[in-house]
Structures are given as structure tokens and as C-alpha cells.
Amino acid sequence: MREQHVALAGSERPALAGAARLRNAPAEAPVSVTISLRGKVAEPERIPDERRADAEKTKAVLERYGLTVDEVRLEPGSIVASGPVTAMNAAFRTDLGIYRSAEQGEFRGREGELQIPAELAGVVTGVFGLDQRRVARRAAVRGSGSRGSLTPDDLEKLYSFPPGHGHGQKIGVAEFGGGYFDDDLQAFCAGHGRPAPQVDVVSLGFAPPRSLEELRQLPPQEQQEAAGATPEVMMDVQIIAGLCPEATISVYFSLFDQKGWMDLLDRTIEDRPVALSVSWGLPEDHPDWSQTARDEIDKRLAGAADRGITVCVASGDDGNGDQIPDGHSHVDFPSSSQHVLSVGGTMIDLAGREVAWWEAPGRRTRMGGGSSGGGVSTLFERPQWQQSVQVDSLNPGSIKGRIVPDVAALAGSPFYDLTLVGRPAPNGGTSASAPLWAALIARINATLPVAKQQRFLTPLLYRNGSNGRPLGQAACRDIATGHSNNSHPPAVGYPVKAGFDAVTGWGVPDGNALLKGLQ
After folding, report:
1. Alpha helices, DSSP H, located in 93-219
2. Of 232, 284, 296, 318, which one is the catalytic site residue?
3. pLDDT tens for residues 57-80?
4. Is the pTM of this model over 0.85?
5. What DSSP string describes 277-322?
6. Could you say which of 54, 236, 298, 354 is catalytic?
7. Helix (H, G, I), strand (E, B), or coil: what is residue 366?
8. Is 418 in a helix, a strand, or coil?
9. Is 236 part of the annotated catalytic residue set?
10. Pick the catalytic residue: 431, 433, 484, 487?
11. 157/273 Cα distance (integer angstroms)
């Protein structure tokens, strides 16, 4: 007798635009999924009895379908299970296939809504990993030369970093592809007279190539993807290493699908770094996000914030259009979550002024370009702590949504001085702004009194200090000039103005002032 199933709300996924289904997924091919359970992220010493019961019940049902439970993560409420395609199809009433797109090549995917066994209704809130379509896109641009790019010394001076090297701090870096070349980190640190920090490479379903030789041994499609992402990985690590050489840096390599996000954030919650740098995302309303994925990622970001982890997320490099040319304004997720620090971008103009980043046409193209992502969310309500600032949505009839970014840092010219395969490789984008803020947070945390350490920074920036001014205003240098972030004419962008705006937020950091305000 066939068991009864019920629809899993929010699991609907449309066909991927530009992809074609080639064939059914091989019946015995292995599949690994991460299943999310109801409830908030729990403290490890206070796991609710309901969570334990839900995990046991779910495990029993999955095993009945021939699936193996590989891991139970009670703190975030996740279960990792594996089994063949046939068992997954039966357990979740789906039809897994092999698809092909120009961007991603061949991948396993699905369409439509998932169903779960009826007895798990209200217990299981999401199933991730069946569909391997990409939901992580880098926010980054490339520099064209090393001349004039900013060194760690330059960045410390520009943003008034407080003394110290991040001693004893843990910083996480989120990566969804690419390789990690330790020789380049050693060369970078030696070239700038900095000790090399401890870097732990954490593989979460994806093992990165550790040298150019290893990268060249990958299959052609994987080699191309790794070669494209490795410069960005090394940029993240080198920016943090140059500013926090005495910190421990954990580089989390995960898959770029929805399951990859769950696994990476679960591990971050477990490790509890003071900051996590994330330079990946997609427009919050992109059809490749399922509603359950957004909800479950946001739940884990809330759990991280509750533990004092400031997740620094790039706001995007494609202005207010965010690569969707439909005449509306869009913001990136997870940058639009209220549980992160959203980081926009600046550049230094020919007159030596730091201004909002905008290079024609305001979005990335093969010929260059880009601008600071920012705007007003259409999905996430404006949090209470952000009610004191006013930015109206450019989307008629939209909600009073979360405003991004919160802050900014260098993204455009003259870029960051970096090393790749032994040679100068300047780079930038809001992908670079995010790790800079993660490094600053760690530097400050190392010098704060114990009672003031490990606090989620973002709401504090909007809170008035003893001088009656918001901390963001007192501890950031306002960026009041520059081009609006329009990127897909005829749609207009958000303006750059004095005070808080939706292009650079409160502005760029004054590290010493921020330290003083947090003491």
C-alpha cells in the first residue's frame, strides 16, 4: 500500500531558465540531502525535547525508505541523509533528472513541489540537495594591474584600524567553489612583511584544489569553474590575513546549491567565529531560490547573530538592478537578511576622494563595469532597529523593507594589492569589502573587554550612543558623493546623499571610532 504524502510548502522550483532536461537521473546514483526540522536554532546545552523527538521520528521514517542518516545536528535542527535516486524519488515524490545549461554544464535537478511522508508534516520544513542548480554567485570585479592598488598598510591607514593583529580571534570565510593556494598566501604575507596566519581549509562536500597543478588535473568543466573562483577565494583570505595575521581563518568550502548553504551555516554556528565573510548570493527574488531555502538560510543566520557572529555579506556588484533587467529594483540575498551586516562598495576617484562605487554601465559586463548593490527589500520587513533611517523603495507599492547596505568599504579603483600564482593580481568588488569588515570586527573584538566581545554588530550601528548620535554615524566616515547605483536604464538607482543611504549605508569605517563606541 502506498504511503500518504503531503506537499512541502515553499519547496516549489521552476525549470531553470536556459536549461534542458537530458535524461532521468541514474537510478542508483548516490544523493545526499540536508533536511531541516522545525524550530529555531538552539543552544547546545539547551536542546528542546521536541527537537530530539523530531530527529528520532524523522530518522525512522527516512530509514523506512531505504535512506541512511549520516549526521544529526541538533543545534541548528538539520539531518543529513543519503541514498540512491530511486529512494529519494520515493521519499519525496519527485522525479530527479540530469539537466544541462550553458553556465553550469550538466547537473542533477528537479521541477515542481516536493512531498514528504504525511507523518512528518509540521516536523520537516525543508529538503535541500536534490537539485544541484547554482544559487551562489560571486560579487567581484577584476583589477587590471598592481600599480596603485592598496596594501594592508594602506587599508589600515585609510580606515583607521586600531592597533593589533587579531590575536586569538576566529574568522570564517564562505566559499562555494574555487581552490586554495597556500603558496600564494605565504608570498603575499612575506611581500607585505606580515606573518602568515593559521588557515584551516574545511571541506563541506567540496574538496578544493590546493595548487595550480591539482586544479589542472580536474575534468574540464570543474577546472573552468575552479579557475574562475580561485582568484576570489585568495582575495578573501589575503585581505583578512593581511589585516589579522594572528587570527585563525577557517575557509569553508561547500557546494553552490541550497544544501551547500545549509551545511556551511550549520558548521559556522558550531565553530562560532567572531565574523563570517560571505561574498556570494543571488537576487532575493530570483526564481532559483525556493521559499523554504530562503527561510531556512535566514533561520540559521538568526542563530548565528544570536551567538554574536557578525556575518558580513557583500551587497552585490550590479547596482540596484542586481543583473535582473526588468526595470525594477532588486537586492541580493543573503545580504537583505536582517541578521547580517550588508556591505556595499566605494572607489577612490581621480581627485583622491572616496566616493560611491559606480563604473559604467553600473553592472558587470565583459568590458568591465559595476556598482554598489543596494536598495530596499521586497521580501524582508524593515527590522525595528532600522526604523530610525528613511529610504523609500523605488518599487511602487512595495513593502517597507530592510534597507541595504549597512556600511561600505573599497570595492573599485584602485583595488586591493593581492597575489595569484606568484604574480600581482589586484582585485575588488563588494567581495573585497566584506572580508575587510570581517577583519576589522575581529581586530576590534580582540581589544574589547570580555563582557563586550562577540556581539552581533549590525543593530548596534543604529543605536544612539551617549552623544545622542547613532553609532554608525559616529564610527563611519560618510560617503556623500558619487553616482546613483542605477544599472539597467531606464530604471533609476538609489541616490548617494549626506547621511545614511541605500548605496553605502552609514559609510566606510573609522576603526578607532568604532572601537571607542563599542567599549
Report:
1. 152-158, 182-191, 212-216
2. 232
3. 999 999 999 999 999 999 999 999
4. yes
5. EE-EEEETT-TTS-HHHHHHHHHHHHHHHHTT-EEEEE--SBTTTT
6. 236
7. coil
8. coil
9. yes
10. 431
11. 25
